[in-house]
Amino acid sequence: MDHFTYNNGTLCAEDVPLDAIAAEVGTPFYCYSSATIERHFRVFTEALQPLPATLCYSVKANSNLAVIRTMAEMGAGADVVSGGELIRALKAGVPPERIVFSGVGKSKEEIAQAIDAGISQINVESEPEIAAINEVAAARGTKAPIALRINPDIDAGSHDKISTGRSEDKFGIEWTRAHEVFTAAAALPNVVPMGLAMHIGSQLANLQPFRDAFVRLRDVAAMLKADGLEIQTLDLGGGLGIPYDGSTLPTPAEYGAMVKDIFADLDYRLLFEPGRVIVGNAGILVTRVLYIKEGATRRFVILDAAMNDLMRPALYGAHHEMVAVADPGQSPREPADVVGPICETGDAFGNGVSLPPLKAGDLLAIRTAGAYGAVMASMYNSRALVPEVLVKDSNFAVVRERLGIEELLSHEKMPGWLPQTTR
Ligand SMILES: *Cc1c(COP(=O)(O)O)cnc(C)c1O
After folding, report:
1. Residue 219 domain flag
2. Is 385's pLDDT higher than 90?
3. For the segment 40-63, what is each residue's pLDDT rounded down to a tens digit?
4. Torsion (CA) 322, 326, 329, 330 in degrees, nearest 10
5. Is residue 375 pLDDT above 90, yes or no?
6. Which residue among 102, 171, 198 has the greatest number of ligand 1 atoms within 8 angstroms of its CB, and so is best to mutate?
7. Are 326 and 370 in contact (CB under 8 A)?
């Protein structure tokens, strides 16, 4: 369910026609719907009631300040994976006591930043990291709250590049060593082990891997408790998938019921780190057709958006639905290969896509681009970073301006041995 629907043949974001936004900000641009973000956040929250749950929105899915603040206003916490994301979460108004810090390779500077901010917990992924946190906290005369991210050795069955819970993946501490590592951490003077964490992957299409991993987590926690170790928090990670192609996936309600099955009546504070399921279909990428090219064997629709703006198709072979912004609905569909202008064959958004007849200048919307879209964009080919627009009811605002070539060049310097100006 999202709030991008047609009104009189024109695709709108809530009450705003997308062609009106395009006329004002130019193309391509990302467009997010507040109502959709809010709805998904509410649905996920309600699915977990009455568990003692904290939703720590996974900032890496979409880290725009206005997007984070939209959720912070609803009581969201944040899951961050870098010092930069921590600054964003704080700046967006997420209270530090609702922030968790994940990731396999936190630097000492990032650890210090997290301790100074007073965040809820650092999810640690290795013994050397625990030692580093202990050292940084000691230097500051304080104790740092940590949770052990365990690797449950469960295959999420997702895309290989976004499965994170198998023993061969780089994430977490083997679950069989949780007892030993937790005990050692509890003996250190400057860390306070709060509990356990896990995150087995992203875009999971069924609940069974979650169930297997959560049961394992619950059993490990019970074992540690039986040995007198104190477990206050269990962080269940994110990963619930969303339909990119109209297929049916488990709903937040089904996910919540499964979680309650396993954790109801247990005395833990539960943390969740959803990203994609909240913002994924709350965003689209709006792009303009530059040319229609009749190739020898196929018809190409060449867009002004490219793989640098939305990497998922090139990176994961991901599918995104595409629709024409102006579509009266009755015209016959024609198959086309939809491509970007970059000099790589991988710069394509879909082959044989069924679209109404299009001509140069028409607008196209690439759907379900709210998660892992703008955040993964690059300036490859010296292309500008496209603007992000947030809609609320009949209002819209540019929440990140287009970052162009002047901005990029202003950070590049000539070394002393080259002329400083052109002759
Ligand atoms: C990426 C990530 C998430 C969010 O995953 P989604 O699939 O977007 O829900 C949550 N937790 C951790 C540790 C992550 O790395």
Report:
1. yes
2. yes
3. 999 999 999 999 999 999 999 999
4. -120
5. yes
6. 102
7. no
Pocket of ligand 1 contains residue 2 by CB under 6 Å: no
Asked if residue 274 has its Cβ within 6 Å of ligand 1, the reply is yes
Total domains in the chain come to: 2
| Confidence at residue 330, expressed as pLDDT on a 0 to 100 scale | 83
Q: What's the pLDDT tens digit per position in 163-187?
A: 888 888 888 899 999 999 999 999 9
Beta bridge partners of 391: 33, 396
Question: Closest by alpha carbon to 398, among 150, 2, 32?
Answer: 32
Q: How far is the CA of 210 from the centre of ligand 1 (A)?
A: 13
* 203-257 confidence digits (pLDDT tens): 999 999 999 999 999 999 999 999 999 999 999 999 999 999 989 999 999 999 9
Mutation to probe ligand 1, out of 199, 204, 272, 278 (largest number of atoms < 8 A from CB): 199
Q: Quick one: which atom of ligand 1 is closest to the CA of 277?
A: 9
The answer on 273 and 339 residing in a single domain is: no
Residue nearest to atom 10 of ligand 1 (CA): 238
> Measured from the CB, is residue 77 less than 6 Å from ligand 1?
no
User: Residue 266 belongs to what domain range?
Assistant: 34-278
Ligand 1: nearest atom to the Cα of 197: 13
Q: What separation in Å is there between the alpha carbon of 240 and the centre of ligand 1? A: 9
Does residue 416 fall inside a structural domain? no
The reply to whether 12 belongs to the active site is no
Quote the pLDDT of residue 1. 78
| Closest CA relative to residue 98, chosen from 89, 87, 110 | 89
* Tokens 């287009």 belong to residue: 402
Residue 99 sits in a domain whose CATH number is 3.20.20.10
Among the candidates 250, 278, 306, a domain finishes at 278
Helix (H, G, I), strand (E, B) or coil at 200: coil
Same domain, 399 and 272: no
Kindly report the CATH number assigned to the domain that includes residue 310.
2.40.37.10
Taking the centre of ligand 1 as the mean of its atom positions, its distance from the CA of residue 228, in whole angstroms, is 31
Is the pLDDT at 156 greater than 80? The verdict is yes
Last residue of a domain, one of 248, 278, 308: 278
The SS3 of residue 247 is coil
Ligand 1 atom with minimal separation from the 102 CA: 13
pLDDT at 246: 85
Alpha helices by DSSP H, 92-193 = 108-117, 127-139, 178-186
Assess whether 247 and 396 both reside in one domain: no
